[in-house]
Amino acid sequence: MRKALKAKFILFGDKEPLHDYSVIINKERIEKIIPNSEIDKSAYTVINLGDSVLMPGFVNAHIHLELNWVRKKLTSFNSFPSWLEQIINLKKQNNNREVITQSVQQSLKETINSGVTTIGQISSYSGLDFEEIVKSKIRTVYFFEIANSTISRINQHFFKNLRSLNKKSNGMFVLKLFPHSIYSLDTVTLEEILTKAHNEKINLGIHLSESKDEVRLIQKKKNAFEDVIFPMLERRPRIKIRGDSPLSYLHKLNKYKSNIVLVHMNNLLKEDLKILEKQKYPVVLCPRSNLFLNQKMADLNFFLNYEKTGIGTDGLSSNFSINFLDEIKFLYLHSKRFIKKNPEKIVLEKATLGGARALGIDKLVGTIEKNKKADLIAFRIKNNDPFMSVIDSNNNDLKLSIINGEIIKSQEYQV
User: Regarding beta strands 376-380 and 52-56, do their DSSP bridges make them parallel or antiparallel, or are they unpaired?
Assistant: First the structure.
């Protein structure tokens, strides 16, 4: 039987909320939105959420589920390169399947408990995360990570299976390639990955412009990558061409004009903004991660007004939590400096539709609309303003989470 979700408020992106309406779900899709007064109890299973805000599920557009274990082992650092030095050494020491699997399980639990229904997962352990993701029933854009040391992965049987699954997917699983960064791949190898993605019709993502040293590397200035990081690697990256910025370098290599998801983007030149405005690359911001790594945040004044901006928590290797509500609160507080009118609406739009746009799945999720997938969450009302109520919420306020029409998490509600 179809479900009718009744709530005091229903949020529609940056539009005015509906009051005392219901969302009708038929299997995995949203069928319609109707006034509560029109509900025929004989036609629906009615889920009365009472004093709640019903809204699209959150999209955590960039997360490393597998790196939960790293947080306990990190020692103090004062720069991005000194952090990366630790990460490289720690990953060399740990290939324990059980530890990595437990990290994925813990990360998924925290993610779902904070209202996330879609993740952009960066998979760096040849599929150790895959089974747990499937069990969790979370919608996943699966970024298959590649560096110089792991380029052979794209010829392995597991990747071939992912490609096959991607073709059969109903939108619950979307495969993308993820060249790790411009500093972890030869120029020639990065070009080959871009060509392979184009030929096989697979989209991509990449960490980009995350640190000052990355900018200095591409500008042929003294930098810690060449002085400290490259000597640690099995194969020193051979960067053949340089540019004014990491984005200009990547843009020159992107001869197919692929729609690459650019993650971080917090060290940009004015010319980079012109490239973004012209090419419309999707961008994912991870503001708390940037500060954790002793870097500046991205240009919020630009990106909060940029259509294809999503939000990510990154992983516990570069953040104190992967709770998406924490990320939203943090971004809201900082956005108030730039957005004078309704910053709460804009932040929540970036946390839902913005993330869906960045991941290329906005025709499926991100808003409450007829025929879109039923990925919905409901929070207990804490404020007369429903948008501020969500901003102020914590895990205990999450009353309901539905992914693809299926109830994944619920507190008590009236039926």
Answer: antiparallel
